[in-house]
Amino acid sequence: MLKRILVAVVGVPFLLAVLVVAPEWATYALLCGLCIIAAHELMSAVCGKEKTHRWWGLAGTLAVFVLTTVFFGDSRFADTPVRGMFPFFVAALLVLLFVILVTQYGREDALSLIDICTVLLAGVAIPLALSCLLRLRLMEMGSGLVLIPLVAAFCSDTMALFAGMAFGKHKLAPLVSPKKTVEGSLGGLIGGMAGMVLFRIIFFLCTEIQLNILWCVFLGFVGAAMGQLGDLVFSAVKREFGIKDYGRLLPGHGGVLDRFDSVIFAAPVIWLIICSIHLWES
Fold it and tell me: What is the per-residue pLDDT for 107?
């Protein structure tokens, strides 16, 4: 528990500095780094050491190009000459991946279907999900909006932990995560909503813009629910392949996928909702 607290004390200010204070390119750079590490963690868990060593670079490069496509896809980069090149790079790498599948078929160390799916998950799906943080950062008032998935997911994680310790009796998904309880899950939903109410207050104090209270509560609920689903999904992968943590990057928390599994699921849904509503009156 002490390690978790110490990492949070250092990590939270760092995240705030990068996502809120630093320019938008810093968010892009941070996400590139996180996705490269996440690709290594996932491939190590599923594909094994040898295949990870050989093909991690392909998954990591694919992840960077996916994020770069999103970053330069923003309208403010409309006149950038290289803007239209990055989707072709992504397509070329995908073609290369399947060429490798075909040309190596039958070899002892050939990529299997599950290996291909893992590379696609690590190099495309996870970066696309986390790119929604970048999409939020690039929006109007983006330095505040980018925090919403993190607030909903992390407040849910924290409250679920304490609620489960205090009131947990009924197992939520014992074969996937034996320690998680229904009571902890309900506490997590409350934590996500409460976190967004607090976020609304701080947002107003910083910007003098009043966010709609009902939408904030709804975003907190959805972010918490999707975050818990993400946690369970990545826990199921760990169970399937017999590992405790994806990595050791964050003492007390594990790896990038251990810490950001909830955000991977929460960010896309929250981004979609924010794009579809009027979160504040202009």
Answer: 85
- How many Å apart are CA 226 and CA 180, to the nearest integer? 15
Residue 26: CB atoms within 10 A of its CB come to 15
The continuous run of DSSP H or E covering 181 comes out as strand 177-181
Q: What amino acid occupies position 187?
A: G
**DSSP letter for each residue of 121-133:** IIIIIHHHHHHHH
Report yes or no: 159 and 196 within 8 Å, Cβ to Cβ: no
> Which region holds residue 246: left if phi is over 0, alpha if psi is between -120 and 50, else beta?
alpha
Rounded to 5 degrees, φ, ψ at 189 are: -65, -45
In a domain, 9, yes or no: no
242: exposed, middle or buried (Cβ count in 10 Å: 0-12, 13-18, 19+): exposed
pTM listed for this prediction: 0.93
Phi, psi of 132 (to 5 degrees): -65, -25
Mean pLDDT by 10 residues, the chain (282 residues): 68 88 94 96 92 93 95 78 83 93 85 93 97 95 95 94 90 91 95 97 94 96 96 94 84 82 96 94 64
Domain end residue (candidates: 140, 175, 193):
140
Sort residue 266 into left (φ over 0), alpha (ψ -120 to 50) or beta: alpha
Q: Per the structure block, which two tokens stand in for 49?
A: 């050491």
pLDDT at 19: 92
Out of 140, 156, 185, a domain closes at 140
**Domain extent at residue 182:** 147-282
| 157 plus 266 within the same structural domain | yes
3-state secondary structure of 124: helix
- HSE toward the beta carbon, residue 182, CA cutoff 13 A: 3
Whole-number Å distance between alpha carbons of 19 and 243: 31
Tokens encoding 92: 């070329």
